Amino acid sequence: MAPTIGQCAVGAAIAWLVAKNLLGHSRPFFAPIAVVVSIGVALGQRMRRVVELVVGVTLGVGVGDLLVSRIGSGAWQIALVVALAMAVAVLLDSGSLIVLQAGSSAVLVATLLPPSGSGGLDRMVDALVGGLMGLAAVALLPTSPATLVRRHAKGTFGALADALRQIAEAIENGDARVAADALEEARGSQKDVEEFRQALQTGKEIATISPLHRHRRPFLDGYEQAAVPLDHALRNARVLARRAIVALDGPGALPPRLPRELRELADATLMLRDDLAAGRPPERAARAILSVASRQGAERWGFSADVMTAQLRSIIVDLLQATGIDRDEAVATLPPLDAHPDDSTSPRKSTQRPT
């Protein structure tokens, strides 16, 4: 977080100097506050935060100045001013920042800064100055978008690879508890997915705003292409883990090829991570995934095994999409499922019981 903290600190100081020395505002506290809020410590949507901030402050100051100048200050006046300012903000936009800024600005006007002359307009200008200084700090003192996205993507790719390996181990050892552990860890990975998406959004924002990092936009395209399919692959891995628990607790057999193929997909996931991090076309990863896809047969092993096979096929499609292959082409790489349960060529074991 050091670069972001530095951006907030430098931007706040410059915003104060601009509003006080260039614009002549005596107490331009809204300017440095606007910098801190617009940059923030959270990832993503900084442009939107600047707009919401300025609109929220404008509403709060405007409503506060209008009412307090007529009805004075006090407890019931604060309640009325805050309620009206926040209600107008909600009607304009339900974003949390614009509503909070409208309410807090109205409180400041009603308590500490009674309206006088052009004070309301000055505060609106201070908020705009702070928002612009915040964007300037992001542009001129930027975090590297490549480093930011690469770091947050690492957790998502690792979570998927770990889940696939754990499920493979559970099937190989016939241990439903290992599958349950895989499911629990995969459920906890959603936080990694959300952070990856926010980092990607922030990286694209930096690459758009900052002239120093515009050349990074092609690098981010590979990650943007992979983000949604990777999320889908993790969701399918959770379903696969749940079905593995059921299958391993039941009497049915599972295809012996499953552990090997799951591990190959885990390896391919890490190849994809490394290729994107290095800015290379993910050709190695695509070849490894296609190799697993080509070996998907139409044999039937029972309900739980068939569900797991279907989930495996879905993960293959997701990973192929993450490498840049479109969905129709990815689906076409899989052999069709045209066998029937009573097919005499099916390798169903004679000892298998219904699941």
TrEMBL record:
Per its UniProt record, what Pfam families does this chain match?
FUSC_2
According to its UniProt entry, this protein's organism is: Nonomuraea angiospora
> Which residue windows are transmembrane per the record?
26-43, 50-68, 74-92, 127-149
Any coiled-coil regions, as ranges? none
In what way does this protein cross or attach to the membrane?
Answer: Multi-pass membrane protein
- Domain of life according to the entry: Bacteria
Name the predominant localization.
membrane
Protein name as it appears in the record:
Uncharacterized membrane protein YgaE (UPF0421/DUF939 family)
Query: Which keywords annotate this record?
Result: Membrane, Transmembrane, Transmembrane helix
